[in-house]
């Protein structure tokens, strides 16, 4: 039984401290938080997934190297600069950021990961980081400040925490994320931080995280582009005092379920807060021959510009859904496909049925629209989330950045 | 030496006849041409490429079956309905269209291909086609009418013809295409028809067409979606009276060059006339380890929503080009990448150089913008074309269709 914690965040699990400060990295004079630290009181198991973009930020490169360890202490994160496409200086700066954090917190710099998000192609203003890092107070109620410090074009912070019972003891999982809204061009990064006081070793934590990310962050789309800095980190410090949870534990399923819940909620929040977006779509494809096929079709639909514009217009233009399914290349039989919009069936066996158009248009006039596709050729299903494409998106992303 | 023919079109090559009529398939009362026929006076070698979408129009299915023959006589094409997602009726209707055309022209219906473009999910109004097909007069100067009859949301017809010398005789290649502009939602199809009086057998014609399409229609992008009806047909009837041109002919290269020229020009016209588009981009990637890599990166750039919006804003936001290159997954070395915008270098060895921003912004304030990417890791290159993403695109494609 998973319970949602009110105002929960990354410091809701026991033994995690966080904080943020204004260092002037984003807009000078804005006094918004732009430098944050999240640490565990003691060594925590680390699991992570990183962008597969071949032009990664040196902050990603450094964190990837260090995340190979079984345990780390925490992470320092900045917004304002992605620390990307800046040559060899980027790696030096990422290392110095971790050294400054280590010095300030009296921890081993090698146990600190580094995350950066912001404009590509400008160097980190290290002088500002050196001057201001000392102002960060890492406290057990600093999770909200940390979530604010990693925001770029997000209009609100994205955070939550849940708890569940493990052998009579409460285990908590907290999370914070930032989205890929891009009002200011080039500020494109998805970062997510998950903390838990569960006792989980690196191997099971990584396996669980990879599965959860596959069903959440990897199933959302805003504009089909992939950041140079995308990172999801999970830290587990065992402070809940339970027995270790691994593959064979009776609590392995509830842990994976909780972790997936946190990842899905954060992922959906990123979509809801996507730049320019007015509507979210949840695309569920079932009856596929494999989960891979179902996921491929669901993503093809959620990323299609023609589907995104029809969502924006509140238009039950099902031919575009068929087009996207066909384009995905998965195994289908056209004459078996059924399509539902907010649970109203509009296509039966590949052909339109005489649905009441006004009812469907009305059903699409919602902040969240569900597209259901039944392929009826197998038993596998998958869900993806996306947002509408709006005039605002075009206007925001056409503005000068340089 | 390739020469452009003034006002050239699909009936410029010897022995081709075409025409169109108003049948009421698009907007009743509009009196625009919507049903067209293109035939050769005698059997013509046929080569074709079709959509790979798994939900193809039955018109595509029928044409694909018939294009297996060495020769055909011609094609009947309609706009207004894509004849797609209409169940088994679609195949019956496509067959009847070819039978009606065969009867009208006194040719074997099996020698007629069928192309449809327009709304997905509505049946062809066969009664209107039966009533009006008799009005089509196929003449040797009807190429322009044919080009108009296949238009949907295109704002202008797309046609040209070129000629070159083969052993002292003039050989002509003509072409007509329609684009994937989608002012009226769901009307998404690229159709192209190439005619030539060259004497070319099926095998060499198909090989040449596939190569030309790979460098032209397959390298353009408007919105990353793929129609259920995309078709390119090439007909060669030998009326120029030259020796046969095949792989070993001294004229094989000039023929391929001419065919590619026609395909590239039609493809670029489709991009220029894309719905809502105000600017075209030409993306050339050189110094790649393979043509496949170069093409992949060029297409990744030309299809990126963030690149399309930066093109719209006239913004030299090079981080987005780096992002797209990295995302493409091809072999690169970040520290070797050079980037040029309209021949002004802005990135050297993976890092920005201090370019005069106003000059680059000014260079981008053009109807056609060239992005040049030198990867400097090999010798292969490729070019792709795309258009900007505009508010108009969103507005047009958000409108009700149903």
3D architecture notes:
- The structure is a homodimer of 402-residue chains.
- By secondary structure, chain A is α+β, with helices and mostly antiparallel strands.
- The first copy, chain A, contains 11 helices and 16 strands.
- Chain A folds into 2 domains: 3-272, L-amino peptidase D-ALA esterase/amidase (4-Layer Sandwich); 280-398, Roll (Ubiquitin-like (UB roll)), CATH 3.10.20.340.
- Chain A has helices at 58-66, 89-105, 126-132, 143-149, 202-214, 252-272, 291-303, 305-313, 318-327, 357-364, 391-398, and strands spanning 3-4, 16-21, 35-50, 71-81, 112-119, 158-166, 169-178, 191-196, 220-221, 231-236, 280-288, 338-341, 344-348, 351-352, 368-374, 380-387.
- In chain A, the strands form 2 sheets. In chain A, strands 1, 2, 3, 4, 5, 6, 7, 8 and 10 form a 9-stranded mixed sheet that branches.
- In chain A, a hairpin with a 2-residue loop joins strand 13 and strand 14.
- Chain A is globular, with a radius of gyration of 22 Å.
- Residues 182-187 of chain A have low confidence and may be disordered.
- The interface between A and B is large, with 66 and 66 residues.
**Any idea what the radius of gyration of chain A is?**
22 Å
Can you tell me the CATH superfamily of the largest domain in chain A? L-amino peptidase D-ALA esterase/amidase
Structural category of chain A: alpha+beta
Number of domains of chain A: 2
Q: Tell me what portion of residues of chain A adopts beta-strand conformation.
A: 25-35%
* Assembly form of the protein: homodimer
Q: N- to C-terminal separation of chain A?
A: 50 Å
CATH fold topology of the largest domain in chain A:
L-amino peptidase D-ALA esterase/amidase
Taken in chain order, the helices and strands of chain A follow as: EEEHEHEHHEEEHEEHEHHHEEEHEEH
Number of strands of chain A: 16
Helix fraction bin of chain A: 25-40%
* Rounded average pLDDT of chain A: 90
Briefly, what CATH class of the largest domain in chain A? Alpha Beta
Largest interface: A-B, 66 and 66 residues
- The parts of chain A where pLDDT drops under 50 for at least 5 residues are 182-187
- Proper CATH architecture of the largest domain in chain A: 4-Layer Sandwich
Taken from the alpha-carbon principal axes, the silhouette of chain A is: globular
């Amino acid at each position: 039984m998973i319970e949602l914690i009110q105002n929960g965040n990354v410091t809701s699990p026991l033994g995690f401290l966080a904080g943020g400060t204004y260092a002037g990295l984003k807009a000078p004079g804005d006094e918004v938080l732009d430098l944050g630290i999240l640490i565990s009181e003691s060594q925590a198991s680390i699991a992570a997934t990183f962008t597969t973009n071949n032009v990664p930020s040196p902050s990603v490169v450094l964190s990837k190297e260090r995340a190979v360890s079984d345990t780390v202490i925490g992470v320092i994160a900045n917004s304002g600069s992605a620390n990307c496409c800046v040559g060899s200086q980027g790696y030096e700066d990422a290392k110095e950021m971790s050294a400054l954090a280590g010095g300030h917190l009296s921890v081993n710099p090698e146990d600190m990961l580094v995350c950066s998000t912001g404009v590509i192609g400008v160097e980190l203003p290290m002088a500002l980081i050196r001057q201001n890092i000392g102002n960060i107070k890492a406290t057990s109620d600093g999770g909200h400040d940390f979530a604010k410090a990693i925001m770029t074009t997000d209009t609100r912070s994205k955070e939550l925490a849940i708890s569940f019972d493990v052998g009579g003891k409460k285990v908590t999982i907290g999370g914070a994320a930032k989205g890929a809204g891009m009002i200011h061009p080039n500020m494109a990064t998805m970062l997510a931080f998950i903390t838990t006081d569960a006792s989980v070793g690196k191997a099971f934590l990584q396996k669980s995280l990879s599965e959860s990310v596959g069903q959440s962050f990897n199933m959302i789309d805003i504009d089909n582009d992939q950041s140079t800095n995308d990172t999801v980190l999970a830290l587990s410090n065992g402070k809940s005092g339970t027995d270790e949870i691994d593959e064979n534990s009776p609590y392995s399923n509830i842990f994976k379920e909780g972790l997936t819940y946190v990842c899905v909620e954060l992922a959906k929040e990123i979509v809801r807060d996507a730049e320019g977006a007015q509507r979210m779509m949840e695309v569920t494809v079932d009856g596929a021959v494999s989960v891979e096929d179902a996921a491929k079709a669901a993503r093809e639909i959620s990323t299609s510009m023609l589907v995104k514009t029809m969502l924006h217009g509140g238009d039950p233009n099902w031919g575009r859904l068929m087009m996207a399914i066909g384009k995905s290349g998965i195994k289908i039989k056209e004459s078996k496909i059924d399509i539902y919009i907010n649970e109203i069936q509009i296509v039966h066996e590949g052909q339109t049925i005489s649905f009441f158009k006004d009812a469907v248009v009305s059903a699409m006039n919602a902040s969240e629209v569900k597209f259901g596709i039944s392929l009826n050729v197998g038993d596998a299903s998958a869900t993806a989330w996306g947002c509408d494409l709006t005039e605002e998106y075009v206007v925001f992303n056409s503005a000068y950045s340089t």
